[in-house]
Amino acid sequence: MAFPRIALFAAFVASITNAQSANPGVGINPDAQGATDDTTPSTGPNGLAQHRHNNQRLEPPFLALENVTHISITDFYNNIGSACQQYDSYFQSASSTYNVDAVILAVIAMQESSCNADAGGPTPGLMQVSCENYPNGQCTDSIQDNVDAGTKYFKTQLDSADGNALVAFGSYNGWFTADSGLNNGKGLTDGYPCSAEGQSNGVPQNLDYLHQVLNGWFMGLDVYGDDSWIGTYQCDQSCSDGSKC
Ligand SMILES: *[C@@H]1O[C@H](CO)[C@@H](O)[C@H](O)[C@H]1NC(C)=O
């Protein structure tokens, strides 16, 4: 009776597979390379994760910010982004100042600090942005200053990347492209965050950053909770035990 055994095995594999993917129900983004209906550990509706091949240089495909697929800010606040809702007025204000959709800002705050305005570190606050980006170049206790500083930094990166949202989101986490001079001009590679040069720059870049933001939070998935399977590097920011980031 081979057949029932095969069927059982198939059902077992399917149950594992299901735990490692989710269909956010937004459809494939037609402007994103390598996009899939489901978010999986390595891709999803906003595509990408295709731009680092075998430790070769980072060459992100172009995706305009206006063409990034995402859930509405209301859906975000009503579900996984509930911790961010109390800061909505700050996101809305920065949104009008810098012309960046408020849901983009709320998602950055979620990824960066889980929307904890008291988060510390060298790049503090909701947006985890360094003090040099604040008005007057100095950190303040103002949440609005923090959100403005993060938004301004993001917008500056977007403009200098000729509108490529993938480069701008990556830059927010310290990613860099081949023209930056870092890593012998190669752009961010898998081996860089934990290399000697990478470690001399402080906290290693999170090699799952783009994927977590674009195919996780923007899809309404809980990247730091039930959907922590999103990503293939599972960075622990320690560079120990074989972690690449
Ligand atoms: C956004 O996507 C549309 C439809 O694919 C495309 O025509 C447009 O050029 C894109 N916008 C930018 C700024 O690339």
Helix-strand blueprint:
Layout lengths: L1 H18 L53 H6 L9 H11 L3 H12 L29 H18 L4 H8 L23 H5 L8 H8 L29
Helix pairs in contact: 3-4, 3-5, 5-6
What do you see in this structure?
By secondary structure, this protein is mainly alpha-helical. The protein has one domain: Lysozyme (Orthogonal Bundle). It has 8 helices and no strands. Helix 3 crosses helix 4 and helix 5 packs across helix 6 (165-172). 2-acetamido-2-deoxy-beta-D-glucopyranose (NAG) binds at residues 30-31, 64, 66-67. Residues 90-174 form the Transglycosylase SLT domain. Residues 1-21 form the signal peptide. Residues 25-53 are annotated as: Disordered.
Descriptive keywords:
Lysozyme-like_dom_sf; disordered N terminus; mainly alpha; 0% strand; binds 2-acetamido-2-deoxy-beta-D-glucopyranose; Lysozyme; 245 residues; 8 helices
**Total domain count:** 1
> Could you give the count of β-strands?
0
What does the largest sheet look like?
none
Q: Tell the overall outline.
A: globular
Care to give the gist of this entry?
The chain has eight helices and no strands. It has helices at 2-19, 73-78, 88-98, 102-113, 143-160, 165-172, 196-200, 209-216.
